Amino acid sequence: MHQSGSGCEATNTVRLFQTNAVSHYVTAVLFGYPALFFPLAFYIGYETLLYVEIVSIIMVILMFWERRHPGSLLNFIVALPSYLLASIYYFVALFTVTASGEMGYFYVFLATVSGIGKLLADSIVIRKLTPERVITSLIEGRRVTMSDRGLVVTIPWASDLFTQFSRWETVAIWSIRTILFTSWAWAFFRYGPGMYSSTGILDRLPHVIALAGFPMAFFVCPLWQMPFMYYCNKYSERLVDAAEKQRRRDEKAKQNGDNEAPEWKWL
Question: Which of 18, 28, 117, 254 is the S-S candidate for 32 at Cβ 3.0 to 4.6 Å?
Answer without folding.
Answer: 28
